[in-house]
């Protein structure tokens, strides 16, 4: 019989305390499917069900109640021992490498790192700015920020916000070019997009779908530059609500085809399982998550 993993036992106690998988996942900051899988692994290792699944709340089985009673004092001893180890080396020392899309750098990341360095001067950070999709974290990369689809891997994905792609153009451009009332008419315009470009897939309120059948005329790595090209009147830009909000509010841009929408894209921090992280990684991720949740919300 496989032995239960320590992390699964810790998560078991959190589920007991919160009464549901969803509430425990929110409290611990891990995805709900990951927590469900870990509880299933623990039940497989124990060989018995630990919870009865009710409509609104989980309840302990007799075996789960026994495990809770025996495990809780032992886990408190483990937590105390780890806390004492942290006290022996109270400051952080280490090096973190982060993969970040350049367009997200302005949403509290630099400020968070600066404050962290002031408090913990023995730490160092390397930022790798790249718009390429992240499929995995190499041995020298500790975490990554991604916009959109997530890789199929064992990485943890903590959602910190969302955005969606929109089509925008300046009033001056629209005055001198043909009207756009259907996505097919984009072929008659200069389309500017961030790279690497992912074709648009739009849905109308009436149930019709449209997928972009052409390549954009101009691809730029940073979505901020894409949006600025539209402000300058050089074409129709595939921007996002997150980066075009201010220009739309000030009338520098107009959103096109508002009846055609793409689904929202999550903005997430990717990182390894907590068991594979240093204390520096775990605590910095908590600080970064809090700042991004606030910063991205403020810009929506």
UniProtKB/TrEMBL annotation:
Family: Belongs to the LysR transcriptional regulatory family.
Assigned keywords, A-Z: DNA-binding, Transcription, Transcription regulation
Molecular function GO labels: DNA-binding transcription factor activity; sequence-specific DNA binding
UniProt-listed Gene3D superfamilies: 3.40.190.290, Winged helix-like DNA-binding domain superfamily/Winged helix DNA-binding domain
GO BP terms: DNA-templated transcription
Species lineage: Bacteria, Pseudomonadati, Pseudomonadota, Alphaproteobacteria, Rhodobacterales
Protein name as it appears in the record: D-malate degradation protein R
Top-level lineage group: Bacteria
Source organism (scientific name): Ruegeria atlantica
Record bears the keyword Nucleus: no
CDD domains for the chain: PBP2_CrgA_like
Entry-linked PROSITE patterns: HTH_LYSR
Record keyword Transcription present: yes
Pfam families: HTH_1, LysR_substrate
InterPro entries in alphabetical order: LysR-type_TF_proteobact-type, LysR_HTH_N, LysR_subst-bd, WH-like_DNA-bd_sf, WH_DNA-bd_sf
Domain HTH lysR-type, chain residue ranges per copy: 4-61
